Amino acid sequence: MNFALSSTYPAFLRSRVGALAVIAGFALLAGCSDPATEQAATTETKPAKEAATASASQPCGKVTIASMNWQSAEVIAEIDKIILSKGFGCDVELVPGDTQPTLTSMVEKGEPDVAPEAWVNAMRVVLDKSVSEGRLHYAAKVLKDGGVEGLWVPAYVVEANPEIKTIEDALKRPELFPAPENKSKGGVHNCPSGWNCQISTRNAFKAWGAAKKGFELIDTGSAAGLDGSIAKAYERKEGWLGYYWAPTSILGKYKMVKLDAGVPHDSEAWKHCNAQENCENPTKSDWARADVITVVTDSFKKKGGPANAYLGKRAWDNGTVNVLLAWMLDNQASGADGAIYFLKNNPEVWKTWVTPEAAEKISAGL
Fold first, then answer.
1. Is 7 a residue whose pLDDT tops 60?
2. How far apart are CA 283 and CA 154, in angstroms?
3. Which domains does the chain show, CATH number per domain?
């Protein structure tokens, strides 16, 4: 199966500028941190040993899991399917999903049972309300590092120029990051056309005064164009500076370094200007770190038995995901192929998520 490049990207990045409601929600909610939510997520990710023991004899039953339409979400859904079916005897069905439709359905209809990789910032208010009402529950923060956005450079540039640590440092050296069509200028590669991040990156370019420092903003046109610009720079060992995010297959294939913004995320500035199309005076602000959490329905919480304990522990770091996605890209592998590859080659990771008895069953099933 040959993946379209767009399948590697979460919906919150791929939403069109024309979808004003989605953009407004993202601008308002992305990066916001709610103490009650943090506490709820922390509580959910530490299931009590006593509860797990008490529910160990409960049958898991039928489980519906959303398989989102980007690679990291697709492969974790396939991993969950194998582990829940082989290790816990669940009858698992994968159903197609995407961030907003899936989470809205879980809120309103209580289905599917599990959203393995929910980028919750885009629906934070609605989800927090549903969790407080007991209709939904937060399980593990499936991406322990969160979803990471910002400006990146190749690792070899930093190795050769260790003084470059921040965005300001990079903008002092336009000669290290030549623009493709004008070598006398430095280039900052923008997010693909029509994506939400194109707006915020354009405003970051303005906030840091990059044009006055000898840079121009490069329109990459598409996801393939952005990825291709990184691959081309790596092949030629040239400088490259631009927007990217993790986890993705590209960061598993090419070692990149995220530049320190030098300032924290300013949610107010982001809400009122930095993420808005017509922002006249954007503020220097780091990108928000997105919370990426497994969400389960209340019915599954009650019927899932020990499977709940698994979903409360199952989390991996972006480095692990990047490497797996790169393998999938290189081998034109499906999510199911990626799941089997991961389980066979990373037992030291996934065996910490399950009991020894379940691990033995899963290994035998592979």
1. no
2. 26
3. 31-146+290-365 (3.40.190.10), 149-270 (3.40.190.100)
